[in-house]
Amino acid sequence: MAKDKSENTPKTTQQKLPIVFGITLLVLFVLVLGTKLAISPNMPSYNNYVLMLMPKSIDTVFDDKDLTLYVEKNKDFDKTKNEPLEAYKVYYYKDNDTSTKKIYLKNGKTLKGEKEESNMMVLQFLGNATITDSIIRNILNKALIILFVLLACYLIYIWYLDWCRRQDKKKELNR
User: Fold this and answer.
1) What is the mean predicted confidence (pLDDT) over 108-137?
2) How many C-beta atoms surround the C-beta of residue 169 within 10 A?
3) Quick one: which of 23, 48, 54, 95 has the most CB atoms within 10 Å?
4) CB contact at 8 A, 73 and 47
5) Roughly how many angstroms between the first and final C-alpha of the chain, as a whole number?
């Protein structure tokens, strides 16, 4: 079988551009979809993701004292045995001196002072993380929709180019 002339000629920039554009769209689509799946609550890395979104510290007033609270991952957390809120430990430093030993809140979650107030401090950290998480998820959802539409348009364009090529071959054969 004889080789067609078009197989031997190098591709021009005009011919390479749709290929590069298609590959780029596909890679972006896979990356965005992979990111969306990776931040799913069912994934093992979800607690690390949430911790990354949490603020590093929160300033609060407790028992008429200014207190800076910090959060860290609970290394002893076990999904099967512990509540989800126990995945994080909230702590502070005495007199806000970071060179002293960390003082963890009772059960890692609550402050109980002289007034016997109890606040779920970890929820304050989680609340801030949830706001950022919802923004990220909205952006990823919109990006997926846009990339899906662009990929669909790209496939229609490729089909059109192929259809035009077949029509040109038919015209050449009919001459």
Assistant:
1) 72
2) 11
3) 54
4) yes
5) 22
